[in-house]
Amino acid sequence: MKKIISYLGYAIKSNNIVYGIDNLIKFNKKLFLIIICPSCVKKSVNLAIKKANELSCDIKMSADILQDLLHKDNCKVIGIKDENLANAILSCKNDLVEVNIG
């Protein structure tokens, strides 16, 4: 079992996750990590990058389809609200890919 699945489970149980690009855009508190799905459309990727720059948080792409990791249909973008969980997820280097911001 991948560690990232456990960390995302902790984020869900502790209510430290923001689901979807629409909710992410409306979210105005501190985020520590934004994760996008590899199947996410370019417009949503650009909006997520803009939000990451606005909130000064990391942005990564999941190596796997997010809806499979979260068991949540059609989930393409999530935000992590807890710094420790974000750091734990970032430590899963094999499960995350850099996002090309340029």
Topology:
Elements: H1 3-13, E1 17-19, H2 21-26, E2 33-36, H3 42-55, E3 58-62, H4 66-70, E4 77-80, H5 83-90, E5 96-98
Parallel strand pairs: 2-3
Antiparallel strand pairs: 1-4, 2-4, 3-5
Structural class: alpha+beta
Kindly identify the CATH topology. 60s Ribosomal Protein L30, Chain: A
Given this structure, which CATH class is correct?
Alpha Beta
**Number of helical segments?**
5
Q: Which residues sit in consecutive blocks of at least 5 with pLDDT less than 50?
A: none
Number of domains: 1
Largest sheet: 5 strands, mixed
Q: Percent of residues in helical segments? A: 40-55%
Mean pLDDT: 93
As a whole number of angstroms, the C-alpha radius of gyration is 12 Å
* Termini separation: 33 Å
Order of strands, widest sheet: 1-4-2-3-5
- The CATH superfamily is identified as Ribosomal protein L30/S12
Helix and strand pattern: HEHEHEHEHE
Global outline: globular
Strand content: 15-25%
Instruction: Label the CATH architecture.
Output: 2-Layer Sandwich
Tags for this entry?
5 strands; 60s Ribosomal Protein L30, Chain: A; alpha+beta; five-stranded mixed beta sheet
Provide a concise account of the structure shown.
The protein is an alpha+beta fold and 102 residues long. The protein has one domain (3-98): Ribosomal protein L30/S12 (60s Ribosomal Protein L30, Chain: A, 2-Layer Sandwich).
General description of the model:
With 102 residues, the chain is of the alpha+beta class. It has a single domain, classed as 2-Layer Sandwich (60s Ribosomal Protein L30, Chain: A), CATH 3.30.1330.30. It is 43% helix and 19% strand. The protein is built from 5 helices and 5 strands. A 5-stranded mixed sheet has the order 1-4-2-3-5, sandwiched between helices. The longest helix is centred in the middle third of the chain and has 14 residues, at 42-55. The relative contact order is 0.28. The mean pLDDT is 93.
